[in-house]
Amino acid sequence: MALEVGAIHKLIVLRKIDTGYVLKNGTNEVLLHKKETKGELEVDQEIEVFLYHDKKGQVVATMSLPNIRVDTYDWAEVVEVVKDLGVFVSIGIAKEILVSKDDLPLIERVWPQVGDMLYVTLSTDKQGRLLAIPITEGVFEGEWETAPSSINNTPINGRVYRTNKEGSVILTEEGYRGFIHHTERKAEPRLGQWVEGRVIAVKEDGTINVSLRPLKREGMVKDADMILKHIEKNSGVIPFSDKSDPEDIDKTFHISKASFKRALGKLMKEGKVIQKDGKTFLKEEKNQTI
């Protein structure tokens, strides 16, 4: 019976060769390259190794034992992104492992980037090749820590492990499951992205709802600054006012109409802008020809 790749095995050193050692388990023989050892080994010595396929497709061993194995999950760093194929992650061995595009979001702009982290396990495809598989809601169900009600309205950080149009789901530093509704984010975070937000609700099942949007006062200041810079970059005038269509506002500024009106009101109160004929002008531009 062939030895399972992606798992740890106890094997016996059969013999030493120029490139390393040959290990055995019954009739199975596996190469352990000398760069994958930890010191000199003796014939008949029993050692623990992790098995994987090298670039030639041969089953090889390493004495570097990764935390991520078949049926065992842990975080893995994204080290390469390949369009139309997927992303490669490092699990602590010489070879990076592919996360197939089939297990990534349909929209590539929310694929992980290099440096992001994915919570994955190992599995094999129909050809027996190792793949890294991101955790799903079904696997994670009930495995999260129970969040106390005392964390409501406090800052929270975490990493996205699922994302779609409805919202994003994160695993926080404390092990809580956090849901970010699409209305509580300005843009859809990437899978594997680290995000910083605040708790807006602690639910009965111990999960939390999270917002990536700032508090209204803080948000108004940031939005006002963004709108002012947008006006300045567009020759002092934009075709928006507090009567503009909410969808047009969202497409341009990625904020709600209510947030836009609050920020615009702040700028008008400070005497920085004026509105006229459905447009907004810098105050010093008010006498320009319309």
Present the secondary structure layout.
Layout: E1 8-17, E2 20-25, E3 28-33, E4 46-53, E5 59-62, E6 74-82, E7 86-90, E8 97-100, E9 117-124, E10 130-134, H1 137-140, E11 155-163, E12 167-172, E13 177-181, E14 194-202, E15 208-211, H2 216-233, E16 237-238, H3 246-253, H4 257-269, E17 273-276, E18 279-282
Parallel strand pairs: 3-5, 13-15
Antiparallel strand pairs: 1-2, 1-4, 2-3, 4-5, 6-7, 6-9, 7-8, 9-10, 11-12, 11-14, 12-13, 14-15, 16-18, 17-18
Can you put this structure into words, describing what you see?
- This is S1-like domain-containing RNA-binding protein.
- Belongs to the CvfB family.
- Residues 153-213 form the S1 motif domain.
- The strands form 4 sheets. Strands 1-2-3-5-4 form a 5-stranded mixed β-barrel. The chain has a 5-stranded antiparallel β-sheet with strand order 8-7-6-9-10, with no helix packed on it. The protein has a 5-stranded mixed β-barrel with strand order 11-12-13-15-14.
- The protein has 4 domains: 8-62, OB fold (Dihydrolipoamide Acetyltransferase, E2P) (Beta Barrel); 74-134, Nucleic acid-binding proteins (OB fold (Dihydrolipoamide Acetyltransferase, E2P), Beta Barrel), CATH 2.40.50; 146-200, Nucleic acid-binding proteins (OB fold (Dihydrolipoamide Acetyltransferase, E2P), Beta Barrel); 216-285, Winged helix-like DNA-binding domain superfamily/Winged helix DNA-binding domain (Arc Repressor Mutant, subunit A).
- It is mainly beta.
- Helix 2 crosses helix 4.
- Residues 285-290 have low confidence and may be disordered.
- It has helices at 137-140, 216-233, 246-253, 257-269, and strands at residues 8-17, 20-25, 28-33, 46-53, 59-62, 74-82, 86-90, 97-100, 117-124, 130-134, 155-163, 167-172, 177-181, 194-202, 208-211, 237-238, 273-276, 279-282.
- It is built from 4 helices and 18 strands.
